[in-house]
Amino acid sequence: MVYFYFVFLIIIWSYSWVIAKIALNFTSPIVFSLLRTLIGTVAVFLFIISIKKIQKIQKIENLLLIVLLGLTQTTGFFIFANLSLVSGGAGKVSLLIYTMPFWSIIFARIILKETVTRSQKIAIIGSFFGLIFIIEPWNLQSSFLSDFFALLSAISWAISITIAKLILNKQKMDVLSLNAYQMLFGLVGIFLCWLFIPYQKQTIFSSYLIFAVLYAGIIATAIGWFLWLYILKKMKVNIVSLSSLAVPILTILESWIQLGETPNIFEIIGIILIVLSLLIIYFDLTLRINKKVAT
Q1: What Å distances lie between residue 103 and 23, 76, 199, 237, 284, CA to CA?
Q2: Please, how many CA atoms are within 13 Å of residue 90, restricted to the half-sphere of its CB?
Q3: What is the separation of C-alpha 195 from the centre of its chain, rounded to a whole number of angstroms?
Q4: How many CA atoms lie within 13 A of 89 on its CB side?
Q5: pLDDT digits over 65-80, tens only?
Q6: pTM here?
Q7: In degrees, to the nearest 5, what angle opens at C-alpha 92 toward C-alphas 21 and 279?
Q8: Which residues fall within 8 angstroms of residue 148, CB to CB, at 6 or more apart?
Q9: CA–CA gap between residue 181 and residue 195 (Å, rounded)
Q10: Spatial contact of 248 and 116, defined as CB atoms under 8 Å apart
């Protein structure tokens, strides 16, 4: 069942980049981050309070880690990602942010002591070269600031993955409560950014912006982060992180169709390399599952 949730997550997250790109025509990156997180946080708390499954905050251990999770998984990730989308294409920005697996594997290896199989190493190398072709580091002059913010978003997300694993390994905490509290602390972080970081763009409350905020807040943020934490609880960081590279692949196709962001020859080569790398991961995972069943 966890694999079905993962596929669903990939689909809703991939299209959220296209929606966010269009929504930023009507508002600023920080305001959009604030609105989507506010809607998402309210939705999560209403749901888990209605089913009476909220874990009381005084019973939570490692509160500092949960605060850090909110600041990295929600505050840093969303603000840097939306700042990057202002001048960058949805497809390319999402791909830059999905350099996250390479950062998360480094953190997981150092902090969590997770092993990396030979097949995963091959997939990492293939994915790395795929991203090199898509990022085109030889042609970054025109979009340096966008690329810089995208990489900051990737690093923030990678740090949050390691923090989430540490929390889930240390305490028997239900994922709904963890998601709710990290979003709450993340919302506080974004609100402070909104207060102290000036931005001149005026918000135009159009029907599309309302749709974008609802989609990004409820589906991509509330449901999406819950599924992400649930999947992290069930699967290894290495596998989850590398498999998530399917998100920007879909985003490139969706932004090509809807936004007219046509991929060039280098991006097409990169996509092929990443798809092949993903296939290696799934074949490796299937073989190891079959071996466990056989024994």
Answers
A1: 29, 15, 30, 11, 21
A2: 28
A3: 25
A4: 22
A5: 999 999 999 999 999 9
A6: 0.82
A7: 120
A8: 84
A9: 21
A10: no
